[in-house]
Amino acid sequence: MCTVADKVCTDPLHAGDGGWNQRVDRTFLPCSLETLLPQRQAMKLGSVDLTSSHRYPLGPIIVLVAAAAGVLLGLYYYFTPLTGITGAPGVLLVIGSSVALVLDAFILWFGGRGWLFGMFWVLGLLGALGTIIAAWFLHAWWLAAAIVFVFAGLIVTLAGPSQPRRAAA
């Protein structure tokens, strides 16, 4: 059942005597998930809270998953025989830079927006560029593909919302 709600607004700008002017706005509330499902089901459907306005930042999650894949692929290339780069010091460099990208993802996720965000975003971009060049020299194509996703995650992070995450009340 769709409803009409009254919203009382206090507006000091439109008050003639310097006091608070109250006006009533009638707002049409469209049919939503809460009206279609019982209240308990609307609040939690499985383990996902469908009525929450809280969203996880997609960019740092992409960076985190892709960089973790880079760490795992680097370990695979380092320890697996017959990969052509088994035991090579360049693979250790790639593993270290991928671990740094994982740490960068956490800083971008929880650091908020400001000069710290900008600095670690640029450092993440430079780290991803260096890692993809090292993967190119090592002929580790799957590792290079994983780092391309790190680049995509950094772009999504930059294009994300500018408001920092707030703690739950």
In words, what does this structure look like?
The chain crosses the membrane at residues 61-79, 91-110, 115-135, 141-160. This is DUF4175 domain-containing protein. Keywords: Membrane, Transmembrane, Transmembrane helix. This protein has two domains: 3-40, no CATH class; 58-158. The chain has six helices and two strands; from the N terminus they run ββαααααα. Helix 3 packs antiparallel against helix 6 (141-158). 56% of the residues lie in helices and 11% in strands. Residues 40-45 and 48-53 have low confidence and may be disordered. By secondary structure, it is mostly helical. Strands 1-2 form a two-stranded antiparallel ribbon.
Please give a handful of descriptors for the protein shown.
169 residues; DUF4175 domain-containing protein; elongated; transmembrane; mainly alpha
Please specify the SSE layout and strand pairing:
Elements: E1 3-11, E2 21-29, H1 33-36, H2 39-43, H3 58-79, H4 89-110, H5 115-138, H6 141-158
Antiparallel strand pairs: 1-2
